[in-house]
Amino acid sequence: MLLLEVLYYIFIVVFCFQLGYYLLIFGQFTRIKLAANVTNNLPPVSVIICAKNEAENLKTFLPSIIAQQYPVFELVLINDASYDHTWDVMENFSEQHPNVKLVNVKNTEAFWANKKYALTLGIKAATYNHLLFTDADCQPISENWILEMAGHFSAQKSIVLGYGAYQKIKGSLLNKLIRFETLFTALQYLSFAKIGMPYMGVGRNLAYTKEDFFRVSGFMKHMHIRSGDDDLFINEIANKHNTSLCISENSITVSVPKKTFSDWVKQKRRHITTAQHYKAGHKVLLALFYISQVCFWLLAILLLSFLVHWQLVLSAILLRFACQYLIIWHTAKKLKENDLVLLAPFFELFLVIFQFIIFTTNILSKPKHWK
């Protein structure tokens, strides 16, 4: 009985941690304004897309990039040693549009299947200082995407973090899970950036300057790590002074989601390998949130099972869920993901377990290639 009493007080501490994260950090997302870009600062922009075996996606989505309504921009297409018809598609596209620049990357022994190497060559080839990144399977939801993202550059702000969503597939529970995980990740990194602690961005919708890239020697500090061309680089250079958030109706990109659970697991394995290389402070804050999540669920279930102060435990659970629902609802509303709100607790519990399995699997066998 004494043990259960101790666990009850531990639960209260964990509950306070969770409430603190939601109210003090994640609640900051509700303060991000969805204002459209009204600045006159419109620098020339190089939009960069690195593609590996993406011939069909390029055919589908490149027209939405070239159709952007922006005064001066170029499209830098990088063929990362593809063995399908990616290069042919790129060449055909460049023949039709004079503002398209091509970079053809061959595999080398030192940088075999390394996206960072291919991106570096593309960045070197870019004409303009302001760079905007997306993926070959991404489509901006508006023809003003470049305008919205580039409009957040200023003399002080050289990094712009945006939101990259995934397409909705009707009737697919896996699709909702993938989109919820993406939504919750965005809630985390955008909220931390809002309080002056930016720790990552997503390459599906991300902008920074060529000057910043070469100032820190690009990806050299983590070139040996296969993934992390977006989050590790932002983790290295971003701070409260140089980072801006672009969350508006016209600034979102939408990507093709994985269709099978196994493909999604492979993708998440690559992504999760980078977190251990974040700055110490970021790792501590993210780890504390995850540990408090695990403990909250475990202790809540245990204490309710033994009816230990069950009225107070249940009240704490309901209060925590109410705060979570409110913040996720605001987040989902801003990011056009309203259909995910009701399933939030179930998805959260699944992701807590799923992340532990992925961490364990990656320790035993690390993913090798970006594709």
**Overall outline:** elongated
Q: What is the CATH homology-level superfamily of the largest domain?
A: Spore Coat Polysaccharide Biosynthesis Protein SpsA, Chain A
Domains (count): 2
| DSSP strand content | 5-15%
The oligomeric status of these chains comes to: single chain
The CATH architecture assignment of the largest domain turns out to be Alpha-Beta Complex
Secondary structure: number of strands: 10
Largest sheet: 7 strands, mixed
Q: Can you write the helix and strand succession as a string?
A: HEHEHEHEEHEEHEHHEEHHHH
Helix content: 40-55%
CATH topology description of the largest domain: Spore Coat Polysaccharide Biosynthesis Protein SpsA, Chain A
In order across it, which strands form the biggest sheet?
A: 3-2-1-4-8-6-9
Structural class: alpha/beta
Rounded mean pLDDT is 91
Q: What is Rg?
A: 22 Å
End-to-end distance: 53 Å
Task: Outline the low-pLDDT stretches.
Answer: none
CATH class of the largest domain: Alpha Beta
What is the overall number of helices?
12
Enzyme class: transferase
Transmembrane segments: 6-24, 284-304, 310-328, 340-364
InterPro entries: Glyco_trans_2-like, Nucleotide-diphossugar_trans
Protein name: Glycosyltransferase
